[in-house]
Design brief:
26 helices, transmembrane helix, 749 residues, membrane, mainly alpha, Rossmann fold, single chain
Length: 749
């Protein structure tokens, strides 16, 4: 679409206020606060809208021309894609962790990246081994080998009388289909991001400009080939280990084992070779060889299935698929070792981070531990739900022939302990920090409302509670650290399954906790995982269908899919690869028409605009101003992504727009905050230089009692957009005046 010009007698508007919404995903009518809008550029997924001409009040404060960028369907879109985000959550978290690495380069940074990609590779292996545990271990081996389990189950009994090799070969098709599913999801056709990408800028690589500045398609394609090869090799290892159990390995089985080990070793080495994977320029030889590796792994799986079916000789006896439990335990132990090494590597690199709190830059090992814990929890729950079905209602902790491996029992018990301890720690932290937060809130309210009337006492207490709750955001980091440490410890305890130690027996022996209570915790933990998964599914559906609900659950999706896929190729695609270049092109077009542009971003929209400003050419930045509100730039992003959002990056943003930047923030906001300095009465002095005038603190609420023209007091805005707030309009007018002082620019197109 193209813009519809107004009539020739209209005075041209020289300032365009381009509004970008946050995670709430509001429609353009709500963003513009105008009931009649039309689309001027983009499509149904991401588009630019303006008030429809011919209606009154089509301009904003200070006579600016209003325009909105709607991007809410880029990270979510259809319900099917929203649900896929739930099931791909471990992959998304694993990909998110690699972007949280400390600042700096060299051996330490390369080591952190390599460890992140190795852990991402283990997430794929956990996914495959869980599906194999259901189909090969529980169904093909345990249930089909038990007449009691097969009784009354015609959907299984047709294969139950067949040899073990045939049962395993037939049901191995399910893990193959599971690999094909994530393969398809990660490579499905979507937007051609290259059509949105603009020219490269001169900003440094280790900044927010890394988002959408370089083409990630080659990297994702290379990682995908490696992960698919590793997935098939993991399945091959489970089948060949069972076939060779008891010293019955033939020459063909041994040869396939060697080839499988070679494929896995090649995958491990390749994910660590960053220059080979990260090059954005075409590398036909490299890509061709990686595709050959993937094809070889697929053919190797076909050969393994044939050998499993056709090779004569008895199979090793046992209640479970031979060596399956040991493979699961080894995989969990490998993740534990990699997490420990990753934490040490981050601590090694962290001194290069200038200043900041002690917990800064620990996001990589923390979120990676959460990703590993989520992957293990998903896998354990899948195995246990199927085991419950096969056990005909017997307790999940019972020692039955169809029970899952002990490693999964320990994993679920560790999850239950981790969630319980983290919840208790959260309550303790809330109670312990409550007095300090309430005192700080009371001081803020007293300064904001020194002459509050007596009848406003209840309203004062309400505002104090809101501010105190909002300040709990800074207390969340220790809780995440606690859960991450327990998740890593839970992975380590899975090794106890090798000694055939049951959680109830061990805990009962070394702690005054009855074994029955431990078994109850395992069962409860399993249902907690199921409830969490169901909650995420319902949250994804409601987030898709209910924009208001999206404000609460959309933060996770929009944060996770904002960053390109650099660690795990099965993570959801990055919407910023379209949104940022699209914004850049639109802004360049508007300034090329002789107009100036006031960029107004709320919440996560301010992150998109910050990345956009860093990619705009200097001549475009010279005609741009920036208005952010509810922005998590410093409060969240600078804390968790120190290599990409830090003081240097924030100052560069200010310098690029000539310090025509105003950031609006409120003490009642639990997500957004100040960028450079709070500028709060009685607080620390403002930042030096022009950065000191960027942050405008908004008193919230504006009043405690109802004004004469209203029947209720002004609302507590918290994190909601405030485009109708008079103080927001004042900021728009000031920035618009600064832009008009620049004078008209010559049209270039």
């Amino acid at each position: 679409m193209s813009d519809t010009p107004g009539s020739s007698d209209e005075r041209p508007v020289e300032v365009v206020e381009l509004r970008v919404h946050g995670v709430s995903g509001a429609g353009p009518e709500h963003v513009l606060d105008r009931p009649n809008v039309y689309q001027v550029a983009g499509d149904s997924s991401g588009g630019f809208y303006r008030p429809r001409t011919g209606y009154p009040d089509t301009t904003g404060s200070g006579g600016v021309l209003l325009e909105a960028y709607r991007w809410r369907d880029l990270p979510s879109g259809r319900a099917v894609r929203t649900l896929s985000l739930v099931f791909l959550l471990p992959f998304m978290l694993g990909n998110l962790a690699i972007w949280m690495h400390p600042s700096g380069a060299g051996l330490a940074a390369a080591t952190v990246k390599a460890l992140c990609r190795l852990l991402a590779l283990t997430l794929t292996a956990v996914y495959v081994i869980a599906v194999a545990g259901v189909t090969l271990d529980l169904i093909a081996w345990k249930c089909m080998g038990s007449p009691r389990c097969l009784t009354g189950r015609n959907w299984l009994s047709w294969l139950g009388e067949r040899p073990p090799g045939l049962r395993l070969a037939v049901l191995a098709l399910v893990p193959v289909a599971a690999v094909a599913l994530v393969w398809r999801l990660s490579s499905r056709p979507g937007w051609t991001y290259a059509s949105f990408r603009g020219p490269a800028t001169t900003s440094g690589q280790h900044q927010l400009t890394a988002v959408s500045q370089w083409d990630t398609a080659p990297l994702v394609s290379r990682l995908r080939a490696i992960h698919v090869a590793a997935a098939f090799a993991t399945l091959d290892a489970a089948l060949l280990a069972a076939r060779s159990a008891g010293g019955r390995a033939s020459v063909a089985t041994t040869a396939l084992l060697v080839l499988t080990a070679a494929v896995l070793a090649a995958c491990v080495v390749l994910v660590c070779v960053h220059p080979l994977l990260d090059r954005a320029t075409p590398a036909p030889r490299v890509d061709r060889n990686l595709r050959r590796l993937r094809t070889a792994a697929c053919l190797l799986t076909a050969a393994v299935v044939v050998v499993v079916v056709a090779e004569p000789g008895p199979w090793a006896a046992g209640t479970g698929l031979p060596w399956y439990g040991e493979i699961v335990t080894l995989l969990f132990a490998t993740q534990t070792v990699l997490l420990v090494v990753l934490g040490a590597a981050v601590l090694w690199a962290r001194p290069r981070v200038p200043g900041g709190p002690r917990l800064r830059a620990l996001g990589t090992p923390v979120i990676m531990a959460v990703a590993a814990g989520a992957g293990v929890a998903y896998s354990a729950e899948l195995v246990y739900r199927v085991a419950d079905l096969l056990d005909r209602g017997a307790p999940t902790s019972a020692r039955l022939a169809t029970s899952p491996p002990l490693a999964y029992k320990w994993a679920i018990f560790a999850f239950f302990v981790g969630v319980t301890v983290a919840a208790v720690a959260g309550v303790v932290t809330a109670l312990a920090s409550g007095p300090a937060r309430r005192r700080a809130a009371a001081d803020i309210v007293t300064r904001d409302h020194p002459d509050a009337p007596v009848e406003a006492a209840g309203r004062l207490r309400e505002v104090e509670k809101v501010i105190a709750r909002a300040r709990f955001t800074e207390r969340m980091t220790p809780l995440v650290l606690t859960y991450a440490a327990l998740a890593g410890l839970g992975l380590a305890t899975s090794t106890l399954g090798l000694a055939r130690w049951y959680p109830g027996d061990v805990i009962d022996r070394w702690a005054p906790i009855p074994a029955d209570l431990v078994n109850f915790g395992i069962g409860l933990g399993s249902y907690v995982i199921a409830a969490a998964i169901v909650g995420l599914v319902l949250g994804g559906l409601f987030a898709y269908r209910t924009p208001e609900f999206r404000r609460y659950v959309g933060v996770l999706w929009d944060l996770g899919t904002f960053w390109p896929r650099a660690a795990h190729p099965f993570a959801p695609p990055c919407y910023a690869e379209r949104a940022v270049p699209e914004l850049s092109r639109r802004i360049s077009y508007l300034t090329g028409q002789g107009q100036t542009v006031l960029l107004a971003g709320h919440s996560h929209g301010s992150i998109l605009l910050a990345a956009t400003v860093l990619q705009l050419p200097p001549e475009v930045c010279a005609r741009v101003a920036l208005l952010t509100s509810g922005s998590p730039l410093s409060r969240l992003y600078a804390r968790w992504f120190p290599a990409y959002v830090n003081a240097d990056v924030l100052h560069e943003i200010g310098e690029r727009v000539g310090w025509r930047w105003i950031n609006l923030w409120r003490d009642t906001d639990a997500i957004g905050g100040w960028v450079f300095s709070p500028n709060r009465p009685g607080g620390p002095p403002p930042a030096d230089g022009p950065a000191g005038s960027v942050d405008w603190r908004l008193r919230d609420p504006r009043g405690l009692v109802a004004p004469p023209s209203d029947t209720v007091p002004p609302p507590i805005v918290r994190h909601l957009p405030g485009a109708t707030d008079p103080r927001h309009n004042e900021a728009v007018r000031e920035l618009a005046d600064r832009l008009r002082d620049l004078g008209p620019g010559p049209p270039t197109g």
